[in-house]
Amino acid sequence: MVIEYAGTVIRAVLTDKREKYYDSKGIGCYMFRIDDFDVVDATMKGNAARFINHSCEPNCYSRVINIDGRKHIVIFALRKLYRGEELTYDYKFPIEDEDNKLHCNCGTRRCRRFLN
């Protein structure tokens, strides 16, 4: 285990409204979906996990784990991590049509060119 993705748990139906609010204020948005119903919003009350970047060849992975009936998003190492090494994981965004694709800039040999 490397770090928990911490923040405020909100209902998934509120994410669009919050994202529009953050955009209107010029605030970067950091949200991570737990399941179909809940999302962790780390934008205002998150920790350093919100700054972990995407990579098509990551050194970490994320898992939703259940602890005492509460779901937590945890980042785990895929291999030994070295001091100063950037942490990355695959965001695994849902596949979108060509017009809504997000370009990937990870620069790895196996880059898929898109996050979704």
UniProtKB/TrEMBL annotation:
InterPro entries: Post-SET_dom (IPR003616), SET_dom (IPR001214), SET_dom_sf (IPR046341)
UniProt domain Post-SET: residue ranges: 100-116
Keyword S-adenosyl-L-methionine: yes
GO molecular function: DNA binding; histone H3K4 methyltransferase activity
Record keywords, A-Z: Bromodomain, Chromatin regulator, DNA-binding, Methyltransferase, S-adenosyl-L-methionine, Transcription, Transcription regulation, Transferase
Pfam family, one: SET
One cellular component (GO) term of this entry: histone methyltransferase complex
Key word NAD present: no
Cited SMART domains: SET (SM00317)
Name of the molecule in the record: SET domain-containing protein
Organism (species): Cynoglossus semilaevis
